[in-house]
Amino acid sequence: MNQTKTYFPGALSLVAIGALSACGGGDGDVATPPVQMACASVTTAALNLSGLAVASAVSTAASGAGGLASSYPAHCQVKGAVNQRTGIDGKSYAIGYDIRLPASGWNGKFFYSGDGGLDGAINDPLGTSALGGKTNALSLGYAVVSSDGGHTDGAGGLDGSFGLDPQARADYGYNALGTLTPLAKKIVTQFYGVAPSRAYYTGCSKGGHSGLMAASRFADQFDGIIAGNPGMDLPKASIAQIHDTQQFATVNANIANAFAAKDLALVASKILAKCDALDGAADGIVTDQAGCKTAFNFSTDVPQCATGVTPDGTCLSAVQKTALAAVFAGPKTSAGDVLYADWAWDPGLVGGGWSFWKTFLNPNLGAIAMGNVWATPPVAPIGPMSAAATSYWQNFKMDTAYTAIYGTNATFTQSAMDFMGMPDPLNLPALKAKGKLLVYHGTADPVFSSNHTASWYSRLQAKDTAAASYARLFLVPGMNHCGGGTATDSFDAFTPLVDWVEKGSAPDTIVATVGAGNADKPAAWSSTRSRPLCAYPKHAVLRSGATDLESAASFVCQ
């Protein structure tokens, strides 16, 4: 019989972890593997897996204290590559991997830790994503694997030159995940002498996109998947990045100066004035996004400065209002055709992550990704903070945007929307038959619109009334991209996923707190503020008679 639960941060206590180790961690888990290879014995020849090479296998000592995401137990770390080749651009390519195998206390399970950005490096080899910042998958006894997405990076996370090779594009989009997962499971099986009983995936941002690839293309490989702030239809999101940059440039050629902090604070205050109390609590958090869309009118609710008056935190200039309205409406062609999605008016736009994306990453990453990775054919490699990047976004035409991301030719036979997209986003039979998908998304995400994700989920529910039995969405009010913002942005989403998979307990709420490193926390908030995140389309509202606005217990999902 299925049950529902509310989950609290830190639910995986040391006591619980010890119990898992003692009993094997759940149905079908293995407390003591029947056979375990010596780490030094893990070699290319010993594994004998087609296309897979082992570069190193090193016994790594435990490090750090318990309760830290950066700590880890003693383990065997295996690094190597799959399908080494030379691309059509003459560069060397391979799907690089890093796999961590607990020396003792393996819980019998497999954990794929997702990628990030344009890839090119191992993103999260310990498996920290979605665990609330207090531990990692390796410390919980999982065998953890992560990948570089099929290429190496030469520009600090902003290298899109791999996009000049069609296979590297496909590897980045989906194939690295699909190729490495079964091979990594075979490594685990050979190392411990038994196959893993469960397989999980977690990731945020591009890692969230890969979570959607896992759910739509490789659901047979995973029992549970977390996709955080996912880059759904990521090439379309890049159109929005360029669109936003162009709009900011109409205000100031130096886009970093288009909106001062006081300008964004003004907009946030007006959003709060109309939307904060819709959930019954004037607490600096907007949970009722649907109600806010009706209640808040940017055009009339945010004052416009008189002609000749400099914005001073009490009004925006006419050009600022025009630009920001266009940004939140989303990119369109000159004929008004929608190219991506609109954005939620959320007070979290005052977060440092919001401005960093809009004024630095958008003009760089947007141009690099579009020009080198999405466009067919690609342009010459674009470097970050270069004249080429500026020229690209300045001259990009919204009317031909879809030509770029849907285009193919004899060399690039898959369009960007082919290799980055879910093949059939409203039809997920393999996931429905086997696994569970938990998606979360901050409503003040500046790069991937939470409205876009919510629209997909609403359409999935409309098509399949049983969708909530295998896929659930949790919006995080105020949160920027994967964290930060005026939000309770720290939460353990992995424990409820495991309980959903292994115990049939579908999560209705997940309790979130203010992250210890969240520099955007308003001074008036308690450092221990907590809130329930609600399974969409529900949102948190104040309980009748409740007065403690710092406690999740004062709120209910409805």
Describe the protein's architecture and organization.
It is a single chain. The chain contains 16 helices and 14 strands. Strand 3 and strand 4 (92-102) form a beta hairpin. It is globular and about 75 Å long. The two termini are 23 Å apart. Strands 2-3-4-6-5-7-8-9-10 form a 9-stranded mixed β-sheet, with helices on both faces. The protein is of the alpha/beta class and 558 residues long. Residues 1-30 have low confidence and may be disordered. Among the domains are: 33-198, no CATH class; 236-277 and 291-419, no CATH class. Helix 3 crosses helix 4, helix 5 (234-251) runs antiparallel to helix 9 and helix 10 packs across helix 11 (387-395).
What is this entry, summarized?
With 558 residues, the protein is of the alpha/beta class.
Q: Mean of residue pLDDT? A: 94
Secondary-structure class: alpha/beta
Number of helices: 16
Task: Specify the overall morphology.
Answer: globular
Q: Approximately what portion of the residues adopt beta-strand conformation? A: 15-25%
User: What can be said about the biggest beta sheet?
Assistant: 9 strands, mixed
Count of extended strands: 14
Distance between the termini: 23 Å
Residues in helix, %: 25-40%
Poorly predicted residue ranges: 1-30
State the order of secondary-structure elements, H for helix, E for strand: EHHEEEEEHEHEHHHHHHHHHHEHEHEEEE
Q: Taking strands numbered 1, 2, ... along the chain, how are they ordered across the largest sheet?
A: 2-3-4-6-5-7-8-9-10
* Integer-rounded radius of gyration: 23 Å
